[in-house]
Fold each of these.
Amino acid sequence: MLHIVLCDKNTEDMSQLEYTIKEILNGKVIISKHNNPFSLMTYVIDDAKGNVDALYINVDMGKNQNGIEIAKHVLEEVPNIKVIFTSSLLKDAVDIFTIDPVYFLVKPYSSDYVRDSIYKLMNIIQEEQADLITIKSAENKGRLVTIKTRDIYYIESELRVAHIYTIDNLYTTYMTLDEIQNKLKNNFLRCHRSFIVNSDKIKKFIKQGFILFNDKFVPISRSKSKEINNNVRNYIQMS
């Protein structure tokens, strides 16, 4: 079930949008309405604990308050929230793309465009969920950690733990490589008994292994070389 927050100084417009969204989703949605940034931030951070899928916010919030700047503050606290801007003025669309919104709705609301924004929102969420894996962290007493698979460069098994190297972080887990690989898509290759590599991160394929875009080297075992060669030939540069 989607969890959506609406923010608009015009409560009538906000109620109309709420009604339309509920009608599109057959009532299977949680909606919270706010007419000022303080109420919005309090709800998103303190009440919902950041568990909000989307924010529909009007660009003009009155009293020199700008919906774009408010949305930026929300994103600083909840980076994964999806933002849809609304406005009575088409010219406001020029300024909204500094934060890569999902959609821009012009008032008065058309149910077709609201429906389009909902479908686009749901598609993005589904794609992101398909790109996530959850592991048990070795550093935090088995706490569950969610990782975007697109951020993973490679995974290395060492003694009783596996190290997952991503763009920004290193995660360690007691899960085996087999257990991790079962959670991953086909673009992850088991190139060695101790390594799994993300084929989307491969810059060059050499005889002994891979050079990744972060300039790290991942080896290929002799027993895997022919299989790996066939799997990656189509989209990495041979050397």
Note: DSSP finds six helices and 16 strands in the chain.
Amino acid sequence: MANAWNNTRLSGKRVLQMNQPTDRKQRSRNKILDAALRTFKQQGYVGSGVDGIMEAAGMTSGAFYGHFSSKSDVLGEAFVHSFIEDQAAMNGALSECETPEQLIEIMQKYLSSKHCEQVEEGCSIPPLLSDLCRADAETKARFEEVIQWMVAQFQERSDNEFSRQEILATLALCFGGLSLARAVNSPALSRQILSACRKQLPIQKCD
């Protein structure tokens, strides 16, 4: 029995040692994806470079090519990476909604000046939306899944009080409105845009 236990421990140790490089590589890959996402949010895809991404990741530029073949290669995966994080965050927020009114409150906060100022920490969809328009079919398909998931969650949390059309219009107003509010130079105009969007949210116009 002692020999059997020792063999099991040795075997487990070998498995662990074999898995460590893979785990380290995945952690490094995720680190690059996180840095790429932050950089794309700050500077846009066109304004970002491999050197800047790797500097943000705290790694050498040469290490980039051990994970990705080009900047365009990392774009699609960074989108998917961000969607997973956003989906988890939204799932947590929606899980606390018990009434349609609470759902409306979440969307009101989404269109707040505070969220507008949080480009890096906020939702990744508005700052990356224009790049997504030029993304490959696989990335667009993943994004479509996220939108479909959002619609289904909104309908479920509101007991189907909001129609699919109203929810899609609300999402479009939130993503587009936040992007527009961030694009102008005037803080006053930015606040006016956000206020106008909050007042026009389709999901709060239901009786």
Note: Confidence is low (pLDDT under 50) at residues 1-21.
Amino acid sequence: MLRASRYRKGVFGASIKRAAIYMLVFLSGVIVTQMIFRTAEGHTPILSARDNVVRILAVTGSGEVTAGSGWLVGEREHSDARYVVTSYHVTVNGEALYVQQQGKTIEAVPVAADPLRDLIVLGIAEPLPGRSGLRLSDYREAEPTEQLWALGFPAVSDTVSGEMSSNTEEVTITNGIVSRMAVDPAGRHIIQMTAPINNGSSGGPVLNGRGEVIGVNTFKALEDSQGVFGAVHKDELIPLLKDAGVQRDYKSVFSPLSFIKWIEFIPVVLWSGLLLLWVFAYRKADYRVYRS
């Protein structure tokens, strides 16, 4: 009996040591992965998203041209995007609408519009080859202090460069955080953010770190209110996309960051694994003692 007891303790002790080693290796891997991908957070997805940002031109009856920004929407069954989202106020005075990218100008027509939410979906005469469009975030709700990126073609950048470029390399990217989620007097769900936007940025996408759309650039505060900018929440756009017949791309985008978001649950998993190891080792020791 004494021998059996010592044997059982030996097996249990060895199992605990193995479990501790496994936990250390696992945690080391998690920490290294976190360091690597936290460093790269936002960079690759955001830079890639520029390929789907376009300039919107609205030509009035008198020939006056106003410009804004927009972005291509990803679809399930089409590799080349056919629809563009922008702000309604960008197009409201235009008798003719055009989408520009990489020096190419394509005629566009309204497909679905919502003046109250300041959103419009445009259909383009020909798809832009190699542009699969951006996805709306289905990951989770954006939260205050979470980082975001606003993309577009602000007019001030045209002044700096001396030309109205539509090249993707000229897309302006500004970074900030979610200040708060709110509902404005018009009943729209909006994202108040610190990422600066200016005239010409309206209609451009606001992205999370995964490169998914969480909002549409819409407004900036008055001159005496610094650091306050706003975007219409992406959920306001979903009914409009359905009305336009856009078959949204619902495929999730894998990112190691999505794994890191769940890091708070790792202790639970580790303790559960330790408990299972203990039960397994204890029962195994009992079985061997019984056989002896």
Note: The chain is about 30% helix and 30% strand.
Amino acid sequence: MNLNQLRYFECVGRLENYTRAARELHVSQPSLTTAIHKLEAELKLTLFVKQGRHIVLTSTGQQLLLVVQQSLQTLDDGVAQVIATNSQQPIKLRVGCIPTVIGTFLPQVLHEFEQAHPQQVTFELHSVTTEQVQSGLAAKTFDLGIAAADTREAGMHYQPLLKQPFIVIVAPTHPLANRRQLDLADLTDYPVLTYSPELLIGQKVQRTLQRQGVASQLKLRAAYPDELSIAGMVQSSLAVGLVADTLYLAAFDLVKIPVTVPEDLRVIYAMYRAANPQHAALQQLFQLFNSRTTTEDASN
């Protein structure tokens, strides 16, 4: 039994899927399958069983997965700590972040972290979509992701950072501009512009409208990639925008109106894989995030 076999087992056990595990590990599926079979033979244990076209962990496999994950985490933490303590080169953390955070909350926190750890950590920032953050973490091209996360994956650490509530945006001359608050049902007389359902945030809007029972009543135009495009269309029309309250909206002459929806449209998280070799530095960064967690004031 060697370290590669344990890392292979951890990945296959966490995902319960050889194809996805091979993609994440950058190895061929046959070689990964062979490594797992050799591990089972060496341990004289059955770690996986087939259920139809899928594989699942046995109870023995589940027990071993917990032990292996804890052991690999301890090893990775120790190696990262030794490197950080003795290396003359600073650790570089690659950060994938959605645009609404990369220009406000994030730089201040990262600058504070760099000052507290001079010449130990540097950051490489990438402004990307939520979908690209998630794929970058899976492919290990990002060490840290800052984005929305409607579901939580096993083997990931999450820290909530910002809440962006649902709001309605209208032009100052719009008939609804003087309202202090709106229900979704108040929007039925106007075209409602919102995010494309190809985006995670667009999918969340669709689910919310369905749950509130108004999806079929609205003149919905769900075709837009971001708040900028929605605000630009709303600014000179009778349409209304249903968006997250973000800093992008400050550039437009619009009225923002709270809408009575019992949930936030988007919660922004910091996230990283537990198996990341820079776990120790990321854990320290999470402690700083935790002390600075706030609700975004999109008007700033």
Note: Confidence is low (pLDDT under 50) at residues 294-300.
